[in-house]
Design a protein that fits this description.
globular, Double-stranded beta-helix, alpha+beta, binds fe (ii) ion
Length: about 300
C-alpha cells in the first residue's frame, strides 16, 4: 500500500507527505522513502516538528548515524544525543553566539557548497534537517543536483574526468575562510578521504559529478591545476537550473542525499536566531568506495 505522496518542487526535489515522521516507520515505508530519494535526492516534509528522540529514531531507519566533525571539535553540546548536529547560531547556554564564536564560523562554512562529511570514510548518505527556529529573512538552504550536473557535461570533459580522484579534507573549507586556529592533532584527526570525481549511484545507476568545498586536490595533478579544475566543476554543478532553493518554515524536515547533491546555507542576520537540528546517516554501500580505493592505489 502506498502511503508516501510526492509533489515535485524541482526536477530533483519533491514535497513529501502521507507519512508521520514522529511515529515508527514500517519496512515498506522505509523502502518508499529510499525509492523516493533515489528519484528526487531532496525530499521536503512540511509541518512535521520532531523531538530529538523522534528525529534520531527516524534517521536510524536508514543506516548507522554519522558523527561529523565531533572528532575534531569536542566540548559541551546543546543536545542529549551526540549524533545530532546543532546547526544554529546559539551557544550551549541558549544565548546568541557573538561574531567571533566558533558557531558563527561553522555557519559561514555551511554557506559554501558542500556535501556533508565527504571528508571522511564512510561519508554521509542522508542528512535530515529539522527546523526549530527560523529567521524572518534569509537563511534559506540551496541544493544542487550532481546527477544533472554530470548529465550536462560535454563529452571532452567527461573523458578528462574518467578515473580521476579528488582529495576531500575536513578543514579545507575552514582554511578557505581564514579559520586556521587548529592544533596539529586537530589537523590530523580526520585523514583526508579520496573519492572519484565521477561516480555511479549503485541504486539508481545514474552518474554523479562528486565535487564540493571539501575537495582540495586532484590526484595526479599539481595543486593549482587540480584546484582550478575543482572550481570550474563546482561552478558548472551549481548553475541555477540545477539548484532548488528551500525557504524554511518551523516544523520542516528536509532530507537529502549527500552522495548525489550539494547544499549550502544562505546568508542571514546573525543577530536573529536560526536553529536547525541535523541527523545524518553513514553510507553503507561500498561499490563507490571500492572504486575509490582502486583508483587511489
Ligand atoms: Fe551541510
Amino acid at each position: 500500500m502506498t502511503t508516501l505522496q510526492l509533489e515535485p518542487l524541482h526536477p530533483f526535489a519533491a514535497e513529501a507527505s502521507g507519512i508521520d515522521l514522529s511515529q515508527p516507520l514500517s519496512p515498506a515505508q522505509v523502502r518508499e522513502v529510499e525509492a523516493a530519494m533515489d528519484r528526487h535526492a531532496v525530499l521536503v516534509f512540511r509541518g512535521q516538528p520532531l523531538t530529538e528522540d523522534q528525529q534520531i529514531a527516524f534517521a536510524r531507519n536508514f543506516g548507522p548515524l554519522d558523527m561529523g566533525l565531533h572528532k575534531v571539535k569536542t566540548g559541551p553540546r546543546r543536545f542529549r544525543h551526540a549524533e545530532l548536529a546543532d546547526i544554529s547560531n546559539v551557544k550551549v547556554d541558549g544565548e546568541l553566539a557573538d561574531r567571533a564564536h566558533a558557531k558563527i564560523v561553522s555557519n559561514l562554512a555551511n554557506q559554501l557548497w558542500h556535501s556533508d562529511s565527504s571528508f571522511q570514510r564512510p561519508r554521509a548518505k542522508y542528512s535530515m534537517l529539522s527546523a526549530v527556529v527560523v529567521p524572518a529573512e534569509g537563511g534559506d538552504t540551496e541544493y544542487a543536483d550532481l546527477r544533472m550536473a554530470y548529465d550536462a557535461l560535454p563529452a571532452w570533459r567527461r573523458q578528462q574526468l574518467e578515473q580521476r580522484v579528488a582529495v576531500h579534507y575536513a578543514l579545507h573549507s575552514r582554511f578557505l575562510l581564514g579559520d586556521t586556529e587548529y592544533t596539529e592533532a586537530q589537523r590530523r584527526a580526520i585523514e583526508p578521504a579520496h573519492w572519484p570525481l565521477v561516480q555511479t549511484d549503485p541504486r539508481s545507476g545514474r552518474r554523479i559529478l562528486f565535487v564540493g568545498a571539501h575537495a582540495c586536490e586532484v590526484l595526479g595533478m599539481t595543486v593549482p591545476e587540480g584546484r582550478m579544475l575543482l572550481m570550474d566543476l563546482l561552478e558548472h554543478a551549481t548553475q541555477r537550473e540545477f539548484v532548488y532553493r528551500h525557504r524554511w518554515q518551523v516544523g520542516d524536515l528536509v532530507m537529502w542525499d549527500n552522495t548525489a547533491t550539494l547544499h549550502r546555507g544562505r546568508h542571514y542576520d546573525f543577530a536573529q536566531r536560526r536553529e536547525l537540528r541535523r541527523a545524518t546517516t553513514e553510507e553503507v554501500t561500498t561499490s563507490v568506495e571500492a572504486q575509490a580505493l582502486e583508483l587511489a592505489a
